[in-house]
Amino acid sequence: MLNKEEIKNIIPQREPFLFIDEVESYVPGESTVAYKNVNADEWYFKGHFPNNPIMPGVLITESLAQAGAIAILSMKENKGKNALFGGIDKMKFKKMVVPGDRLKLEVKIIKRKGPIGVGEAIATVNGNVVAKGELTFAVV
Hints:
There is one protein chain. By secondary structure, the protein is of the alpha+beta class. The chain has one domain: Thiol Ester Dehydrase, Chain A, CATH 3.10.129. It is built from two helices and six strands.
């Protein structure tokens, strides 16, 4: 299990744009299982939406990308590098994510060639799929 400080030793994101609270498990170059605790005081809930807070789909996607970055940037050869979006494919949003939810982020790297790769990403809350798709990344 990695805490926030240990996560920051792997990926470059920082508050308020760090969307992982803990990592349950990871295998460098292969997969990550992480969590985001969605709190009512998140900065984006002030405008998305007042009196009806819903975590934006793009931020769920970013959370998944950060989980995938744990798998890729934990590889020795990628230490100190960054993983950038190369594309988002087949992303579907199935349910709303609201304050109090614990977002489980699972990413499995399914393809890699040089600095480019693809991760299969699934976000769930209480075992229910809230988002899933494929994320293409480039390590720079």
